Amino acid sequence: MVYYSRYYIQEMLLVSFAFGMIVAGYRLIISGRAFWAVIAGACAGLMHATKETCLISFGAAALAFSGVLLLRRREGRSAFPMSVRNIAVALFSAIAVSVMFFSSFFTHWQGVADSVLTYQTYVSRAGESALHGHPWYYFLQILTWSQGDHGPLWTEVAIIGFALLGIWSALRGKADSEHSARDCWRFIGLYALLIFVIFSAIPYKTPWLILNALQPLIVMAGCGLATFLTWLSARRKRYLGIVIIIAVFGHLTWQAYLANFKYYDDPINPYVYSHPTDDVNVVARAVRDAGDRSPDGLAMPVQVVGPGDDYWPLPWYLRALPNVGWWNAITDDFVLAPVILAAPEVEPTLMHRIYEEPRPGERPLYVPLFDRPMFLRPGKEIRGYIRLDLQEKLRHKQ
């Protein structure tokens, strides 16, 4: 959770809004106030406006709620008191918030239609097993045991263990009042398990998707920890529990430090996935330095070539340069620029354009921009070429 809080990822917003919906829904049930219906609906609308995977969260929440109702019936308790008015208020709030964002505050109504049509693409992508296809145990492995050829063993098995204890405790115990918090723990526990199973069953997997299950599992781990301490206290082993808690929190803190400050772009970190490397900063700095020495300044033309338009995150790091061309191939209308960044796959075609197509005496001379291989992401190399006259100016500057 801490690692993905370092930079923008939609799952962080989705998880926050989902938990907000759960908390507001619980407050709505025990209080019956329309205010909480508005909050729950608004959170649901924000979930829909954030990402299409919200459907999985909605489905898991509905199933978990049904499970809680079945447990209440089994214990001889009545269903939750539900107000038709509050349900209508929640639905209206959800739709209003979603429409407001997808229509760009009521200025682009096609966005509302696209928010529904997008699920056709999502359903087909969710079943694919090519680019982001992983086995069913992928998330389980990330959370319990992951180790590369160097670095530490990565595990959050303590969270999983305490979460399972918390879920077992919530499902096993009997509620002692009509509005007991145990129903809330049961709901969150079932919701976490369902989310985990559903995402594990879908072939399409990226590591940040596990945040949808990890956040409620962390909440249930707190419940499990309370159960564990109560059990130890009853046996006069409270100090043993304190030692175990310190060890667990110490390990997770140390692991968070490694993930965020040492192995933040190293593939041995199981949460690193097509993550930009520090080379991106070197590439961007070299291009900006060339612009500083160019007669055109930052308006200097730059060409970037990446098959399949695969040159991310360079558009972000070169956003201050207004004359950057983005290409997926060397086409007939490709014009040579003072600085060219290209994937290794297009280098033969680029060399042909530079040295074979121009007439003798008109061939520009290019030299490498970097003195070592540069990678945008692990395994994704980018090569740089700079016109010799501009390179000489850079050399004099140094």
What do these coordinates show?
The protein folds into two domains: about 260 residues, no CATH class; about 120 residues. The protein has 14 helices and six strands. Strands 1, 2, 3, 4, 5 and 6 form a six-stranded mixed sheet that branches. A hairpin with a 2-residue loop joins strand 5 and strand 6. The chain is elongated, with a radius of gyration of 27 Å. The two termini are about 45 Å apart.
What distance separates the N and C termini? Answer: 43 Å
Mean pLDDT: 88
Helix % is 55-70%
Q: Please describe the biggest sheet, giving its number of strands, its sense, and whether it closes into a barrel.
A: 6 strands, mixed
Structural class: alpha/beta
Order of helices and strands: HHHHHHHHHHHEHEEHEEEH
Q: How many domains is the backbone divided into?
A: 2
Find the count of extended strands (DSSP E, 2+ residues). Answer: 6
Shape: elongated
Helix count equals: 14
* Beta-strand content: 5-15%
In summary, what is this structure?
The chain has helices at about 10-30, 35-50, 55-75, 85-100, 110-125, 140-145, 155-170, 180-200, 210-235, 240-260, 280-295, 315, 345-355, 390-395, and strands at about 300-305, 325, 340, 365-370, 375, 380-385.
